[in-house]
Design goal:
- By secondary structure, this protein is an alpha/beta fold.
- The chain has one domain: Ribonuclease H-like superfamily/Ribonuclease H (Nucleotidyltransferase, domain 5, 2-Layer Sandwich).
- 38% of the residues lie in helices and 19% in strands.
- The protein is built from five helices and six strands; from the N terminus they run ββααβαβαβαβ.
- It has a six-stranded mixed beta sheet with strand order 5-4-1-2-3-6, with helices on both faces.
- Helix 1 packs antiparallel against helix 2 and helix 1 crosses helix 5.
Length: 187
């Protein structure tokens, strides 16, 4: 059984200080326990620098990022991603996020278990999915808090690494992921 863990990096704002891109990344594995152990291993060595019992790439030191991504590259994990260019989205970015997320989820439908980092309240998510008529696409998808699902923390680091590459041209971290990276083509 393959498991898919999805998280995003970037923001949905439109202010001058907002990012231009949002990256939605999926981490695909047949060994979720291995990802849990990987996070636990990194956590034990860096726990004093992390907040709320969770690893977040944006708050992690450079050495923590390199360590986690290097350990991850030694696994059989695959990665997929989509980049949202906010300049090309004239209307509601929140709805656009769910449309793109739906296409990533659709890409992985089948025998897989899909877990997405919960960014909205249940009420807001249901309302958005209903208004976009995406309820069927997300049926069976689990929305979880990354504090309690360690592989989602791995997805956070992967999304952040890809975001650094597309937003700032920094490839140091995405290069650590190796050749298991593929882009999901969206409408």
């Amino acid at each position: 059984m393959r498991y898919v863990y999805i998280d995003e990096s970037g923001d949905l704002g439109r202010s001058e200080s907002s990012s231009r891109f949002v990256v939605i990344a999926a981490v695909v594995t047949e060994e979720p326990r291995r990802l849990e152990k990987l996070v636990r291993k990194v956590w034990r060595t860096k726990q004093h620098t992390q907040k709320h019992g969770e690893l977040h790439a944006i708050h992690a030191t450079r050495s923590t990022k390199r360590k986690l991504l290097s350990l991850l590259s030694a696994t059989t994990t695959e990665y997929a991603y989509v980049v949202i260019d906010k300049v090309r989205i004239p209307d509601n970015l929140h709805e656009a996020y769910y449309k793109y997320l739906g296409q990533v989820v659709d890409h992985f439908l089948g025998e897989r278990i899909i877990v997405v980092d919960a960014r909205d309240t249940v009420r807001k998510r249901i309302k958005t999915l209903q208004s976009l008529r995406l309820e069927e696409c997300f049926r069976g998808v689990e929305f979880e808090d990354s504090r309690f699902v360690r592989p989602l923390q791995v997805a956070d680091f992967v999304a952040w690494s890809i975001f650094q590459s597309v937003e700032y041209g920094r490839t140091e971290f995405i290069d650590l992921l190796g050749n298991s990276l593929s882009k999901v083509h969206c409408d």
